[in-house]
């Protein structure tokens, strides 16, 4: 089981929106040096929605190659078409990803039975570890704990990224799925408490900016060290809040560019962070001793 801080990696781009492989390699080395426990390539924070399938898998393959087995790489392969999700998941296995992260189908709003059959079809089609991803704030689709419990019984489905921020779901999912099922939070603001309640880690946006601190917080929380975890998390609260002052990944890409790690590139329909937010995000970075 992958434990700890799993960064939802931004995808570096040039001003024209082309992927910047040189900066991508630099980011991978930065995260390994800063003790990030695993990398998600091509999740929501990686702008998966605006890269075509070739670009998507090219980024995943590049991250796998750059990491070279030093930490796990999880590929975002979700889609609102089951056949497309199967295709992306197969491709991720072929390029060497260690696991896949599959967001609930967005926009088409399936029923709970539709969700069950969607994930069941992917798990039966591709023998790679698969992590469910529930983020109703973006998808207009909430996968309920009972559905997660049903899916946990299927081979290859090993965990869930639960991004509702509802901490009552930690115990509910754990009771339904057992101790061997990985529970990750996708909500930075409640990640410390999530892990203290029995979660196995955080798939984090804040970890792009303060990876070592997020790693230390998550490790302490998973080990039940509330005092250490909450003390570290206090310095991260500004990032947890202000990296969402505009739609993710707008603020986090600005912050990582401010650190000198990437160029100022993002793809429409997302736009660069507006100037009135610069000092707000910069202050949160200073609170975390990043700047």
TrEMBL record:
Keywords carried by this UniProt record: Amino-acid biosynthesis, Cytoplasm, Diaminopimelate biosynthesis, Lyase, Lysine biosynthesis, Schiff base
Positions of the record's site feature: Part of a proton relay during catalysis: 44, 107
Keyword Lyase: yes
SUPFAM superfamilies listed in its UniProt record: Aldolase
Catalyzed chemical reaction(s): L-aspartate 4-semialdehyde + pyruvate = (2S,4S)-4-hydroxy-2,3,4,5-tetrahydrodipicolinate + H2O + H(+)
Matches recorded under SMART domains: DHDPS (SM01130)
Site features described as L-lysine inhibitor binding, chain residue numbers: 49, 80, 84, 106
InterPro entries: Aldolase_TIM (IPR013785), DapA (IPR005263), DapA-like (IPR002220), Schiff_base-form_aldolases_AS (IPR020625), Schiff_base-form_aldolases_CS (IPR020624)
Residues that, per the record, bind pyruvate: 45, 203
Enzyme Commission number, as recorded: 4.3.3.7
Cell location: Cytoplasm
Entry annotation: catalytic residues: 133 (proton donor/acceptor), 161 (schiff-base intermediate with substrate)
The keyword Repeat is annotated on this UniProt entry: no
Pathway(s): Amino-acid biosynthesis; L-lysine biosynthesis via DAP pathway; (S)-tetrahydrodipicolinate from L-aspartate: step 3/4
GO terms under cellular component: cytosol
Any one biological process term the GO annotation gives: diaminopimelate biosynthetic process
Function of the protein: Catalyzes the condensation of (S)-aspartate-beta-semialdehyde [(S)-ASA] and pyruvate to 4-hydroxy-tetrahydrodipicolinate (HTPA).
Name of the protein this chain belongs to: 4-hydroxy-tetrahydrodipicolinate synthase
Organism name: Methyloprofundus sedimenti
């Amino acid at each position: 089981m992958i434990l700890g801080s799993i960064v939802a990696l931004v995808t570096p781009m040039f001003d024209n929106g082309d992927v910047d492989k040189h900066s991508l390699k630099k980011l991978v080395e930065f995260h390994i040096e800063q003790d990030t426990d695993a990398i998600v390539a091509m999740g929501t924070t990686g702008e998966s929605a605006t890269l075509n399938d070739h670009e998507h898998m090219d980024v995943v393959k590049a991250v796998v190659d750059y990491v070279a087995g030093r930490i796990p790489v999880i590929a975002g392969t979700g889609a609102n078409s089951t056949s497309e999700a199967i295709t992306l998941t197969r491709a991720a296995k072929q390029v060497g990803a260690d696991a896949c992260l599959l967001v609930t189908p967005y926009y088409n709003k399936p029923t709970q039975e539709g969700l069950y059959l969607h994930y069941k079809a992917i798990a039966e089609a591709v023998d790679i570890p698969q992590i469910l991803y529930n983020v109703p704030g973006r998808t207009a689709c909430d996968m309920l704990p009972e559905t997660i419990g049903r899916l946990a019984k299927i081979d290859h489905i090993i965990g869930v990224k639960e991004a509702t921020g509802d901490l009552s779901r930690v115990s509910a999912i754990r009771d339904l799925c057992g101790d061997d099922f990985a529970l990750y939070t996708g909500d930075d603001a409640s990640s410390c408490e999530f892990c203290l309640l029995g979660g196995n880690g955080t798939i984090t946006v804040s970890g792009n900016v303060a990876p070592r601190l997020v790693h230390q917080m998550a490790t302490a929380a998973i080990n039940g060290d509330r005092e250490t975890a909450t003390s570290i998390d206090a310095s991260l609260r500004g990032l947890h809040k202000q990296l969402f002052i505009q739609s993710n990944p707008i603020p986090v890409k600005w912050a990582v560019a401010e650190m000198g790690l990437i160029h100022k590139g993002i793809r429409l329909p997302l736009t660069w962070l507006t100037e009135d937010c610069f000092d707000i995000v910069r202050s949160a970075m200073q609170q975390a001793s990043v700047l």
